[in-house]
């Protein structure tokens, strides 16, 4: 198992595209910072949208989590799974005495570690660039919370925010992994994965418009319906959990159901040798 992990790790890092993703982090953060600097000119420091050094890492990931991070997950998994299938590299693995389910587990762990390292790098770069570009204020206002946070409390909030963001990316990874596993080409895997991502993004807006249009009193929690979307959890759910402590059990249940379902499906498929031969 360890040697198989090293093999997958080396294969992924031997791709120039993996290193390029990490090199793009400072640029992504810099342009995100420029956006918030312009926004700050029309906001008061008491506004939760006002960005300072202490809350910039959270603001930076809020801006990029839906697209940049999810696209990164799609990119890494398609390269690791579908491209390997198409190039028949998987057959070279299957002729060795290796438990087939181990292939899936190792591939998934490798991807998750890369995503984790990407998040850590993003967090550190955010603090560095934020220190240079943004002012420091002692009382930080956050969404869905009436109280303000000091620097230490904001640091803890940031760690929690990135931790839950990581969980959402792990969950998204299982879905993309399943799509990449059953897809017969890189184009199909990429197109379907991006389509699923766009569906998750559009779904909350569609639900909100739909219930406004029918104008029928229905005993449903619209926020819960919208947070059936992983991207809505990334966009709104994390802030709600940390700011108001509401919906935490619901959100984690949704993430677990997605994770367990697609992880189980992937494990089952990878246990079928005939699928790849």
TrEMBL record:
The chain crosses the membrane at residues 20-37, 65-82, 103-134, 154-179, 186-207, 250-270. Keywords: Membrane, Transmembrane, Transmembrane helix. This is ABC-2 family transporter protein. It comes from Tepidibacter thalassicus DSM 15285.
């Amino acid at each position: 198992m360890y040697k198989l992990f090293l093999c997958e790790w080396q294969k992924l890092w031997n791709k120039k595209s993996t290193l390029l993703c990490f090199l793009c982090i400072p640029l992504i953060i810099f342009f995100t910072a420029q956006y918030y600097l312009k926004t700050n000119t029309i906001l008061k420091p008491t506004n939760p949208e006002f960005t300072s050094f202490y809350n910039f890492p959270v603001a930076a990931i809020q801006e990029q989590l839906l697209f940049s991070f999810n696209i990164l997950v799609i990119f890494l998994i398609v390269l690791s799974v579908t491209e390997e299938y198409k190039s028949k590299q998987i057959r070279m693995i299957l002729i060795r005495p290796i438990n087939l389910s181990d292939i899936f587990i190792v591939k998934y762990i490798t991807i998750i570690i890369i995503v984790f390292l990407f998040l850590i790098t993003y967090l550190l770069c955010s603090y560095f660039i934020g220190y240079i570009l943004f002012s420091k204020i002692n009382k930080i206002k956050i969404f869905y919370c009436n109280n303000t946070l000091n620097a230490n409390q904001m640091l803890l909030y940031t760690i929690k925010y990135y931790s839950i963001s990581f969980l959402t990316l792990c969950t998204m990874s299982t879905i993309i992994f399943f799509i990449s596993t059953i897809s017969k080409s890189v184009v199909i895997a990429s197109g379907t994965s991006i389509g699923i991502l766009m569906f998750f993004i559009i779904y909350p807006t569609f639900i909100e418009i739909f219930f406004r249009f029918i104008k029928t009193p229905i005993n449903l929690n619209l926020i819960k319906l919208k947070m059936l979307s992983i991207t809505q959890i990334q966009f709104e759910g994390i802030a709600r959990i940390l700011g108001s402590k509401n919906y935490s059990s619901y959100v984690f249940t949704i993430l677990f159901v997605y994770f367990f379902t697609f992880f189980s499906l992937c494990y089952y498929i990878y246990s079928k040798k005939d699928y790849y031969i």
